[in-house]
# Entry
Amino acid sequence: LKVAEVRAMVTVSGRSIDVEVDGGIAPATVEAAARAGANALVAGSALFKDPDGFDHAIAQLRDLASPYT
# Structure
């Protein structure tokens, strides 16, 4: 909800401003954050804890977010 509110304020301003979510980004949350309007997403634990490695984790997060960013 907060991300959507910030995205709406940015849109109304007419400026080109990134909306970033830093923290809590994981496969279960990235889609909702991107759908709400975040276009800069910072992931930490999701990358380090992925048993298939960084490349897999990054590709998965990008795939889930890409329809919305």
Remarks:
- The chain has four helices and two strands.
- Strands lie at 20-22, 40-42.
- The first helix runs from residue 2 to 13.
- The chain has a mean pLDDT of 96.
